[in-house]
Amino acid sequence: MRFWDFNRNIGSVLILLEFAKKLGLNPHDLLENSGITESQLQEPDAELSAAQELQVIHNLLQKHPRPQALGLKCGQIYTLDSFGIWGYGLRSSPTLGEAVKLALRFIRLTYAFSLISLYETKNHVILTFGEPNLNGDMTRFLVERDMIAAVGLLYELAGPHLKIENLSFRFKSLGTEKDILAGLKADFGARFNSITIPRDYFALPLPNSDPSMVAVVEKMCSDLLERRRLSISISQQVKQYLRVPGMDIPDQPTMAQLMSMSERTLKRRLAAEGTSFREISSAVRKTMAADLLKKPQFSISEVGARLGFSDLSSFSQAFKRWYQCSPQQFRTLNDPQASQTASADSAAL
């Protein structure tokens, strides 16, 4: 599954903003550089790109003074009602096992960024959570959020008698997880991120089982997936990859690999949309360069490195083509005090 292929409902961003408020943060600070408007926040059916939600999460981790274990805390907020028709379908399933299989068939209608798979052994059912290709803090937040949200949904479906035999995290323990995971056995530094459940529980009948409703929900979910798939072009997917915070900006061969197609196919499909990877990459990096230079906490060298330039000189030359001035001049024009913070870069420019 590639979560870039589909737009996402705004519901998860609304949950993140409410979470930020409970943490004592200004929720609107989380919208910085996301392109999310106030009007979208008022529309329950509004859709966003994966990159926009990741920007909100990036801002949350940047602005909270203690970002450790935030993913575990955030995951506790999600309920079946958070997921609209997808959650209703799970609740209507005849057994816990059928609910989980339905969940995975339509996982792209959720807010998950983890790559979730189901494995069955003689005595256990194991849900594994593969890590997205992002930086360490972002990856940890997303996997922990997705896993704890999944645990909450399982309990909501099956009731408190459900036995979660074990949680395993590949991350090292921070020493702060015990209180958050009260009552759950958890291992850290494991080989996989996983949730293990005794197999017998998957045959549990669910109290709100309604097979006829499940059939209706499956049709609605299929239609929604298809509509979202068709609503995002290849060039939009490329833009998402290039703008995701916490991921190195890929070159064209890497982009083709990420999108599970050959480089030749990527070129052809972008050309059919009247553009090219080079054109999109230049436009995205131009915008990101201006955004980053307005933040004095980043040196000009750091901005260039974040945008994938091999050295400061290459970044400076590209920036002059984009804006007809040097990065230092741009920063000074936008914040006269910033000239002092970048003085170490001036000689190289």
Account of the 3D structure:
The protein contains 18 helices and seven strands. It is of the alpha+beta class. It folds into two domains: 3-226, H-NOX domain (Alpha-Beta Complex), CATH 3.90.1520; 234-346, Homeodomain-like (Arc Repressor Mutant, subunit A), CATH 1.10.10. A five-stranded mixed sheet has the order 3-4-7-5-6, with helices on one face. Strands 1-2 form a two-stranded antiparallel sheet. A hairpin with a 3-residue loop joins strand 3 and strand 4. Helix 5 (85-92) runs antiparallel to helix 9. The chain is globular and about 65 Å long. It starts with 7 loop residues before the first strand and ends with a helix. The relative contact order is 0.10.
Reported CATH architecture of the largest domain: Alpha-Beta Complex
Order of helices and strands: EHHEHHHHEEHEHEEHHHHHHHHHH
Structural class: alpha+beta
- Give the tally of β-strands: 7
Q: Per CATH, what is the topology of the largest domain?
A: H-NOX domain
The global form is globular
C-alpha end-to-end distance: 43 Å
Mean pLDDT: 86
- What fraction strand? 5-15%
CATH uppermost class of the largest domain: Alpha Beta
How many structurally independent domains?
2
Tally of DSSP helical segments? 18
Keywords:
2 domains; 18 helices; alpha+beta; H-NOX domain; single chain; five-stranded mixed beta sheet; Arc Repressor Mutant, subunit A; 349 residues; two-stranded antiparallel ribbon; 52% helix
Task: Provide a concise account of the structure shown.
The protein has 349 residues and is an alpha+beta fold.
